Amino acid sequence: ILARDVHNQIVIRGLNTIPLFVQLLYSPIENIQRVAAGVLCELAQDKEAAESVEAEGATAPLTELLHSRNEGVATYAAAVLFRMSEDKPQDYKKRLSVELTSSLFRTEPMAWNESADLGLDIGAQGEPLSYRPD
Length: 134
Fold this sequence. Notes:
It is a single chain. The protein is mostly helical. It has a single domain (2-105), classed as Leucine-rich Repeat Variant. It is 56% helix and 3% strand. The protein has 7 helices and 2 strands, in the order H-H-H-H-H-H-H-E-E. Strand 1 (120-121) and strand 2 (130-131) form a beta hairpin. Helix 3 (30-43) packs parallel to helix 6, helix 5 runs antiparallel to helix 6 and helix 6 packs antiparallel against helix 7. The longest helix is centred in the last third of the chain and has 15 residues, at 90-104. The chain is globular. The termini are far apart. The model is unreliable at 108-134 (pLDDT under 50).
């Protein structure tokens, strides 16, 4: 909640806390993982902050957290990864879309088909995944 306010985001980034929040992703406590991923998700709305999150090595722990049993942790992790991918090539975005979809819909195996085209629009601003009707 603290990181939702733009002024607070500037203060948080200015205090060089991104490395701390990235390290908290490794915590064995799900609630700490969720809060850390949530803060990083809010900060990553800014392109420069998203680049900082990636530069601090957040990709590996966030990818692991996609498989968390805690839906909030997995969703925040997916959102941060999506926001970090916004300036990446389209083929990277497509692979990420498949990974995010398979992780987030793991309890619904029939939710995706063999071609991996799920009607997900990876280019939407602000939302990690949006549905485009075929």
